[in-house]
């Protein structure tokens, strides 16, 4: 699979244009390096390093699988308050690789530490020694295969040599492409905001694209900001915003061992000290972070394996948000709903089926269903005005399909994001390793 | 879709041979009629009547969806101790059809009652009047479409005229084919057993084949016996045996509004009175009923939409059966596991993933995984003796794939049945109504 930077332009349903990322520039305190470590086949980059010269505060959320990958074990063991580098490899998940997989990360961390220290002597841009315990890892790829420790170690000098001290659009896109597995396009998002009167950047990259349910499966998401925020504040902001963004997407109902979303703040912008997430100075950052996370999450769903349509499932007016979420995911994870959408078939009976199987108490005579602008069911009755042909035209013409369900029994809402289920999904997943 | 009786022979992975059903014969007290009511397109039968001349004791279990079809509402409203007729239509689920759908069933029941009473005058084989409230309905097909009341009513005289007073193999196969929707083959099973010293027959038919999770979705299963058993005993036996049979299968994780499994006993064999399901006289019947239900359930999974392989997921040595069931279905419902099997890819990492996401506490260092006879993981370690090529050969050559997981932390087991996920599934479900 050769991926060309130009290939991703206009290639998919959430059309990303190069211009969208025109503004992507340097985040002070961050350097990036992207290389091929031959993990795939040298036709693409597959090893990415994010290097924080002076360290970064950080927070992460991880998969809720009972079986977690070795890199997540490593990350959870870190006690360092600041992180110096995030290293992400693709092709191999380093999951169910046991003690050897963990040991591999240790060796790589030691090699990075050694090589950076060597570089430090030659180059004053490297201000001080990096400890192995200041390195955090992201891994994605096949589960259960031997972790390619030697291959990665061998490429560490090259990785460090290719560090770009400043970023522009292309550096960001290369990094986003370097962490992809079966993704068809790189996923980036950016926002600018203010903390107090200081201008702040929030940039993010992510990868999908199978196993995205219910909690960020096979997702890697990395957010970078030049703000100065403590680990505690970063953690609270990440937790607050993850539920309606990365945890609101589903591609195939499967969950990976490797999910990881992290935020890093280089602290280069000397904004006011924030000690409480209710502090009004952090409001703008909070909203912008949500926007970056949601944009990345939507891009993951839109680029879900085999996707031809991006689907939004909005479930409104429920008694609790949990009820709304259960119904939304029951619809978003239904193979029958997702194949109907792939076939441009407004088979709303399958939406009814998925609402029913969610096992949430509803009042049928209050139920309303819309497909985009088209009202289908109101007060539990199929509308006489409903014309299936209208719905079929909507489905055929739109690349973003909106399913809107109203229970009309409460005030809580939830929106889930997913994609249709196509033959392409089967192709990708029957042939993944071959 | 024209289905020929001969077509189903050797047509699928659980090879049914005509000879398997050589012994299917008459169940005393039961008559069957199968016709085309033009619900599809006259190329196939789509309306089936089971007529119990002297009534039958019965019990049913229904879908656990919060939205149930009109025929299930009708069935739940029946207060009659004996049932005179079961009428099953395909093509239309009579779900989300509201008061009109319910009214349609009432009209059809009245028409059946009227026509049978008329027939009674002409034919002494019809011993007494049938009340509308003695008729139970099975419906399967598209949800939300107007129920074809008039079409069905119009065909009632023909349905009654074509009643076969005795059954042979062909009558049974025709009935099993008459209740199919997207099934590729009819599903029948039979057992002979004894209650006390009296010989008893237990015959069953069923249909699948999407939306089969977790509780019999889009499944209709009908069991007929000539035993003399009370409604109470039938209910208890059905509930006791459904959990490890019809509720142990999953095709696509979806659940229908119309699921229904019923057992009818004509009471023509004057066996000993049984008032307790622990009575040793009912033991043989109990085992045989389980066998009939399991055979039908497996046939449904094997004929799941698009299936090319039948998959058994055996999860053993768990703390509770509920834990075992949760893990088994996490594997059986995983699109990634199911596509790997479709591609003959022994990607056991996906099994690990599915175990992990089940959210059940496990001890990784006790975990064992086998694929058929091939040991892959023991004590949480990939075995050095494991050769992926062996597993690939197994997957390629076998049509029945056995996944065996041992947690080694308890004594409880559960086996789930499913099929692989193929392009054919997508084809069937994107084109279902077109």
Notable characteristics:
homodimer, 434 residues, L-amino peptidase D-ALA esterase/amidase, Ubiquitin-like (UB roll), 2 domains, 8-stranded mixed β-sheet, 31% helix, disordered N terminus
Give an overview of the whole structure.
Chain A is α+β, with helices and mostly antiparallel strands and 434 residues long. The first copy, chain A, has two domains: 5-302, L-amino peptidase D-ALA esterase/amidase; 310-430, ArgJ beta chain, C-terminal domain (Ubiquitin-like (UB roll)). Chain A is built from twelve helices and 14 strands. Chain A starts with 29 loop residues before the first strand and ends with a helix.
A few lines on this structure:
The structure is a homodimer of 434-residue chains. Chain A is of the alpha+beta class and 434 residues long.
Distance between the termini of chain A: 12 Å
Largest interface: A-B, 64 and 64 residues
**What is the approximate shape of chain A?**
globular
Count of separate structural domains of chain A = 2
- Helix fraction of chain A? 25-40%
């Amino acid at each position: 699979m050769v991926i060309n930077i130009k290939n991703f332009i206009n290639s998919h349903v959430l059309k990303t244009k190069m211009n969208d990322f025109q503004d992507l520039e340097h985040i002070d305190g961050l350097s990036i390096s992207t290389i091929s470590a031959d993990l795939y086949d040298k036709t693409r980059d597959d090893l990415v390093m994010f290097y924080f010269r002076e360290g970064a505060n950080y927070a992460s959320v991880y998969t809720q699988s009972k079986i977690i990958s070795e890199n997540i074990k490593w990350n959870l063991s870190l006690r360092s308050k600041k992180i110096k580098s995030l290293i992400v490899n693709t092709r191999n998940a380093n999951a169910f690789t046991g003690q050897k997989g963990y040991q591999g990360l240790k060796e790589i961390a030691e090699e990075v530490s050694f090589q950076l220290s060597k570089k430090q002597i030659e180059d004053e841009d490297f201000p001080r020694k990096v400890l192995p315990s200041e390195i955090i890892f992201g891994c994605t790829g096949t589960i259960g295969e031997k972790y390619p420790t030697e291959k990665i170690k061998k490429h560490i000098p090259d990785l460090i040599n290719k560090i770009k001290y400043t970023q522009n659009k292309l550096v960001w896109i290369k990094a986003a492409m370097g962490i992809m597995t079966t993704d068809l396009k790189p996923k980036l998002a950016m926002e600018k905001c203010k903390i107090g009167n200081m201008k702040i950047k929030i940039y993010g990259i992510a990868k999908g694209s199978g196993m995205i349910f219910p909690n960020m499966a096979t997702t890697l998401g990395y957010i970078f900001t030049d703000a100065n925020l403590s680990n505690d504040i970063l953690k609270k902001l990440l937790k607050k915003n993850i539920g309606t963004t990365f945890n609101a997407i589903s591609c195939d109902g499967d969950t990976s061992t490797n999910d990881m979303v992290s935020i890093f703040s280089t602290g280069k912008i000397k904004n006011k000290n924030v000690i409480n997430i209710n502090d009004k100075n952090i409001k703008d950052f909070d909203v912008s972070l949500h926007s970056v996370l949601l944009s990345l999450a939507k891009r993951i769903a839109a680029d879900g394996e085999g996707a031809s349509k991006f689907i939004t499932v909005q479930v409104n007016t429920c008694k609790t948000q949990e009820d709304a979420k259960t119904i939304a995911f029951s619809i978003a994870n239904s193979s029958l709903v997702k194949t109907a959408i792939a076939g441009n078939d407004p088979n709303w009976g399958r939406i009814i089926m998925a609402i029913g199987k969610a096992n949430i108490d509803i009042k049928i005579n209050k139920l309303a269903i819309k497909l985009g602008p088209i009202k289908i069911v109101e007060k539990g009755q199929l509308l006489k005005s409903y014309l299936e042909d209208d719905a079929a035209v909507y489905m055929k013409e739109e690349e973003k399909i909106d399913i809107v369900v109203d229970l009309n029994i409460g005030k809580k809402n939830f929106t889930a994001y997913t994609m249709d289920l196509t033959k392409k999904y089967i192709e990708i997943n029957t042939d993944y390793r071959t």
